[in-house]
């Protein structure tokens, strides 16, 4: 299932990309959002190409139907890789949900808009479960959209340190 989301920032793309290429931004954001057992697996920033890979645990609070609860109980371990090209201000994130048959990815682009900037996100969620995968994709996309809003609110707070 695919979905496009647009998020606005009260800062230029130059400021936002500075934040998005700082490992401390990611570590602070996940901590502030309540993640547990946050581990920086790797990080690099060479020749304008940034990559960070972080593992974290979150409550499995996805509102899935009862038939899918076995996949989402207790806590979830997530491994997320974010990559950014600082010059083109394009990025991608790939999310692996340990023990859950779900793949999630997002292509991203920062664009200047008005006095600020916009993050254009093209999400793709794929659930690898026969017959019920499509239904779960819809539920997960709705939940992911809400979590993107929470992530954005925290990012907007953290952005102040880069302005």
Q: How would you describe this structure to a colleague?
A:
Helix content is 28%, strand content 45%. With 163 residues, the protein is α+β, with helices and mostly antiparallel strands. The protein has a single domain (2-162), classed as 2-Layer Sandwich (Alpha-D-Glucose-1,6-Bisphosphate, Chain A, domain 4), CATH 3.30.530. It has a 7-stranded antiparallel sheet with strand order 1-7-6-5-4-3-2. Strand 5 (90-97) and strand 6 (102-113) form a beta hairpin. Helix 2 crosses helix 3. InterPro entries: DUF2505. This is DUF2505 domain-containing protein. It comes from Zhongshania arctica.
Main pleated-sheet profile: 7 strands, antiparallel
CATH topology: Alpha-D-Glucose-1,6-Bisphosphate, Chain A, domain 4
Query: What is the count of β-strands?
Result: 7
Taken as a percent bin, the fraction of beta residues is 35-45%
* Radius of gyration of CA atoms, rounded to a whole number: 16 Å
Distance between the termini: 36 Å
- Enumerate how many helices there are, as a single number: 3
User: What's the structural domain tally?
Assistant: 1
- Average pLDDT, all residues: 91
Structural class, from helix and strand content?
alpha+beta
Order of helices and strands: EHHEEEEEEH
Regions with little confidence, pLDDT below 50 for 5+ residues: none
Record the strand order, biggest sheet.
1-7-6-5-4-3-2
- Please state the overall shape, judged from the principal axes of the Cα atoms: globular
For the record, the CATH architecture stands as 2-Layer Sandwich
Q: Assign the CATH class.
A: Alpha Beta
Helix content: 25-40%
According to CATH, the homologous superfamily is: START domain
